[in-house]
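Worked problem 6 (solution included).
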Amino acid sequence: MKKNILLVGHSGDMYGASRSLSKLVRILDQQYTVFVLLPEQGELFQVLAGIIPSERILIYEDLYIFTRKSFKLNYLGSTLLRFIRNLKKISQIIKNYQIELVHTNSGVVPAAALAAKLSGTKHIWHIREWFGDFKKFWPLYRGYMNAFSDTIVCVSQTMASQFGDNKKVKAIYNGFEIPEAVSKPKLNDELSRKLSTADLVLGCTSRIRLIRKGQEYLIEAIGILSKRSDKKIHAIIIGDYVPGYEDQKDVIYALIGKYQLEDQIHFLGHINNPLPYYQLFDVFVLPSGEPEPFGGVIMEAMSAGLPVIGSNAGGTTEQIADGWNGYLFENQNAADLADKIELFLNEPSKLSLFGTRSKERIAQNFSLELHRLKIFGLYGMVLDER
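Solution. The predicted structure is:
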């Protein structure tokens, strides 16, 4: 008889952590009866409903997800009350569905770990976030994670380093498949015409937020290159603004105006399945100004056979083999990013070579099969199935 497990997500969208959650559900459903707890019924719900019965997808809108405002004094009382409500709710779910293992898919959902402990249930915590900015809070929270988890899984060695020398912590890279066939992207005639005249097309798929995701560094780098070269560089940016940061659009467009790039920067907004659009890119760029735990979009780009450029911080340094399948640029340095883009502009033969190497790197180090074997091995160890 299959054992019942509960995966706890922090969002209903289909960005990085949610895509990874859907892959985990697909893998784990082969061997376990999977239940999923989400804070909202969004796109992720629809994806999961195609993998497991929808009655196993539980929506709890009061699920506590901590943010920066959680640490403000006027929110402490309400935060504590929500946390207690969460403990009761998740403990009841564990009891009702006879859950034998709880797997928290994000570091910002704190209650499931303690609920599992109080219920005598095994707990895995999957860390996809960098907590370096929370210097005073992090040692306390790290201790909480350690106390109420049987294993802590990090998506990269860089993320694992946050925990120091801790035997409970393991790094397991997310897995990715090489797509066999991808449909053609839908473009209007005007954008098709503009891209057909480009000397180089850059792609960036990420939520938009200044510094954190760094789209401004990409725009400025293109602006710098436009001042010293007659070659036309276009950029396709896929993704919406992070909720609460929509006003940053004014800063972005002011920067575009400063360098007169109105005809070269193309915003396509959020796209449910961006993979077909990777066919439009010559190079994929993730210009994040803060460390990325392990950018899934970089892996998608590599699986699509693209050269990649990313900053020399976080898990990105483990994904890109600098000078082999892409380049690392100095974090938050638009001028250095411009220099790295120019290497492809001046040596277009590298596009195909580096793209082939990206696929090879996926197959050798980040394959879905390797990920599947490590996840099953982890579950077998935690549930004492071996």
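Discussion: The mean pLDDT is 93.
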